[in-house]
């Protein structure tokens, strides 16, 4: 039996490393987003700064915080065998939960997950003990620190509201004073902003980054025998005042004489500060439980007492974490930061919700988001009646965004927001976390940084009428995910603890195997999703301002739609022939994705037209027609895919052999048409379009022929109304698909100028 505990220790060590990986992937969003979103500095520089912060934070980590040892449960109430079950249940649940959130790209709190996992596993074990001892449910309070859980929940609610409100207020005031032309403001304005921002961030570094470490809790003669933490608390007003003067003067010197952007410097320092605090204080969320388990095993192994009789009361004592473990943890965290693709996925969610302008929205609106937006619109209208018109005009001028030329500045290269908002995000998050730390209020750095970013986005008018309902829905989804984290962490940890207690020797290897399989499955699913997102045949927005330029730019899009459309059409026919429901279901997803990409291109028409000069209006007419025909094609394909899936899913009669044979003939003819069309666009041999158009009558006659044959069959031998309806629906929609395709080709054939070489146009567009 002793061997099972050794196996559990080894498993906890492996799970600790894995938890570091998934934890950093989730929490990287906290300190990378502002720098990445603003594109103030290169990605490589951002990663180097963050890596230094993470590494230093790990080395100077506060190590073993009470939350993993005695913050949630009363250790003297549990024996060694019970505590090992609790720790094992917590780590298995934690790694699976965080990996799930990383896979779907949603930021969540590692602090809340670890707390509620400890709470769930402890409650389960306490109830088992109470049941064996013949106690009552009320005895749970003897085993659990209920006040801690209450504080955490209160901290969640408070941090969400305060972070959002303060972030919005500070951003609104900052934008009102600085406007979007912040680089052209007087030097002293930037110096004061820099002084306030850097002071708040450096105070945050001392209070949260260094003040929370074990070194800050030791006494030093140089500061009168008090601890660093006590010294920082007592001298806080003086430190803040001196820092404000020093950093303001230094900021002025950097702006006036060194010609440096103070906003860029604030972003660099802020990124370092949040990375330092994250590593120094959140490290316990990943390795605290495994180290507590290892120390428990060491104490029990040398005692000679049976696992069921060895009390864990010693966990209430403070035991420092070995430095070499902190160094190893720091190395794993830095490596994860550089190589984790899931970290980038989680980061994209927050940047997407806080970005300037419109575009493809990830979240769909719901009744709550619509209600909040209506409420905000009503409040805005009421405010417009209260404020004088002159005030409103001045405020609107400060919030007026600069016009960006989309040809000179490619849309995918533009920052999600400017450096003022990035600096405010870092500054406000640093201040709030520092204040909460000094007041010993529990909060999550994830919640604070995310809600500050959302509040500043709202105040900065990044959520316009076109996008507000989607962005608010996204925020509500993320907040809902946070509470989901707490509930699922509690329940899952409790269930796993119960299973382990039922038969620890059998369930440890089984649950570890299940965990490994789920992690591998999530990894493969995320990799496949990433591959789809980076697929070569994804559609791209046109950015040229001439007809010939748009022809060349959109050729790849046409080739992509034709290629993917051909596959969808063929799969629909094959799925019907084989009654393959899975193929038809997958086919539906593929055409929905293609349709959404075409819709996204149409959504970009406004910006495309706004970017044209007066001499290039013809390009807009051509582009609009092209997108209209593409949409007609995808709608026809979507209809064919849907009716095919519906027919098989409802278990209707199979199509007859002759019907399948005729549909295959049509599919083969369309395959030739689509392949020729795709080759013409891929090679930009637009003169071949005329040859393809010459075969329109032939293909139309083929489809019409098949329709006539079915009419004759229906009158003489057909006995299934469903089959007849399906067959006619597919052929009639195929005619619409053919017409849309030919209209598209005619548009290109009529507009293309053979004298304009593709190579020259590409060069002109660069």
TrEMBL record:
Keywords: Membrane, Phosphate transport, Transmembrane, Transmembrane helix, Transport. Its main location: membrane. It is found in: Membrane. The keyword rRNA processing does not apply. GO terms for biological process: phosphate ion transmembrane transport. InterPro entries: Phos_transporter (IPR001204), PhoU-like_sf (IPR038078). Belongs to the inorganic phosphate transporter (PiT) (TC 2.A.20) family. GO terms for cellular component: membrane. It is a multi-pass membrane protein. Pfam families: PHO4. The keyword ATP-binding does not apply. It comes from Siansivirga zeaxanthinifaciens CC-SAMT-1. The lineage of its organism: Bacteria, Pseudomonadati, Bacteroidota, Flavobacteriia, Flavobacteriales. This is Phosphate transporter. The chain crosses the membrane at residues 6-29, 41-63, 83-102, 114-132, 152-174, 186-206, 236-255, 262-280, 319-339, 419-439, 475-500, 506-524.
């Amino acid at each position: 039996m002793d061997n099972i505990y050794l196996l559990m220790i080894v498993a906890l060590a492996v799970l600790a490393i894995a938890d570091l990986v998934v934890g950093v992937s989730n929490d990287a969003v906290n300190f990378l987003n502002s720098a990445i979103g603003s594109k103030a500095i290169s990605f490589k520089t951002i990663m180097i700064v963050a890596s230094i912060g993470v590494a230093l934070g790990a080395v100077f980590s506060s190590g073993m915080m009470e939350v993993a040892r005695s913050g949630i449960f009363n250790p003297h109430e549990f024996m060694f065998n019970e505590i090992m079950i609790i720790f094992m249940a917590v780590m298995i649940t934690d790694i699976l939960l965080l990996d799930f959130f990383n896979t779907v790209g949603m930021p969540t709190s590692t602090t809340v997950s670890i707390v509620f996992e400890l709470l769930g596993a402890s409650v389960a074990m306490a109830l088992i003990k109470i049941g064996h001892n013949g106690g009552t449910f009320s005895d749970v309070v003897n085993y659990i620190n209920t006040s801690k859980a209450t504080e955490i929940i209160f901290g969640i609610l408070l941090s969400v509201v305060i972070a959002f409100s303060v972030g919005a207020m500070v951003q609104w005031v900052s934008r009102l004073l600085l406007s979007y032309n912040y680089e052209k403001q007087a030097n002293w304005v930037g110096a004061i902003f820099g002084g306030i921002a850097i002071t708040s961030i450096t105070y945050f570094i001392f209070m949260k980054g260094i003040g929370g470490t074990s070194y800050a809790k030791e006494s030093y003669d140089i500061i009168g025998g008090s601890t660093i933490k006590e010294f920082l608390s007592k001298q806080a007003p003086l430190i803040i005042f001196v820092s404000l003067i020093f950093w303001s003067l230094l900021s002025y010197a950097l702006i006036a004489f060194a010609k440096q952007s103070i906003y860029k410097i604030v972003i660099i320092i802020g990124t370092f500060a949040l990375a330092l605090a994250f590593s120094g204080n959140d490290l316990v969320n990943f390795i605290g439980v495994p180290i507590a388990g290892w120390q428990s095993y060491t104490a029990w192994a040398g005692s000679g007492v049976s696992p069921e009789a060895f009390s864990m009361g010693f966990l209430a004592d403070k035991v420092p974490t070995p430095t070499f473990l902190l160094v190893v943890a720091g190395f794993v965290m830095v490596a994860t930061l550089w190589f984790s693709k899931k970290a980038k996925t989680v980061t994209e969610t927050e940047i997407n919700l806080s970005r300037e302008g419109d575009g493809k929205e990830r979240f769909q609106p719901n009744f709550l988001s619509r209600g909040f937006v209506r409420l905000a619109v009503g409040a805005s209208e009421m405010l417009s009646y209260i404020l004088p018109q002159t005030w409103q005009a001045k405020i609107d001028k400060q919030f007026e965004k600069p016009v960006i030329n989309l040809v000179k500045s490619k849309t995918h290269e533009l920052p999600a927001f400017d450096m003022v908002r990035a600096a405010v995000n870092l500054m406000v998050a640093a201040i709030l976390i520092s204040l909460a730390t000094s007041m010993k209020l529990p909060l999550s750095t994830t919640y604070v940084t995310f809600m500050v970013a959302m509040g500043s986005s709202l105040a900065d008018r990044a959520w316009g009428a076109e996008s507000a309902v989607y962005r608010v829905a996204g925020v509500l989804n993320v907040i809902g995910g946070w509470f989901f984290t707490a509930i699922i962490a509690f329940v899952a940890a409790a269930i796993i603890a119960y299973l382990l207690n039922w038969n620890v020797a059998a369930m440890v290897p089984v649950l570890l195997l299940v965990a490994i399989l789920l992690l591998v499955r999530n990894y493969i699913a995320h990799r496949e999703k990433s591959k789809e997102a980076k697929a070569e045949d994804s559609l791209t927005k046109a950015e040229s301002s001439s007809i010939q330029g748009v022809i060349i730019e959109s050729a790849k899009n046409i080739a992509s739609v034709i290629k993917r459309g051909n596959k969808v059409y063929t799969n629909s026919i094959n799925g019907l022939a084989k009654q393959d429901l899975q193929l038809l279901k997958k086919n539906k997803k593929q055409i929905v994705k293609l349709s959404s990409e075409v819709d996204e291109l149409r959504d970009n028409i406004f910006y495309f037209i706004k970017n044209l000069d007066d001499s290039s209006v013809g390009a807009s007419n051509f582009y609009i027609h092209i997108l209209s025909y593409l949409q007609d094609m995808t709608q026809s394909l979507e209809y064919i895919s849907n009716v095919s899936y519906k027919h098989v899913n409802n278990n209707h009669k199979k199509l007859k052999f002759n019907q399948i044979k005729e549909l295959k003939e049509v599919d083969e003819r369309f395959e030739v048409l689509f392949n020729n069309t795709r080759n013409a666009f891929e090679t930009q041999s637009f003169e071949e379009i005329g040859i393809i158009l010459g075969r329109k009558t032939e293909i139309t006659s083929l489809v019409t022929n098949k329709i006539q044959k079915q009419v004759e069959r229906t009158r003489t031998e057909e006995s299934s109304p469903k089959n007849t309806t399906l067959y006619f629906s597919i052929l009639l929609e195929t005619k619409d698909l053919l017409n849309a395709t030919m209209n598209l080709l005619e548009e290109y054939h009529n507009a293309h100028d053979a004298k304009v070489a593709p190579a020259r146009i590409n060069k002109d567009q660069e």
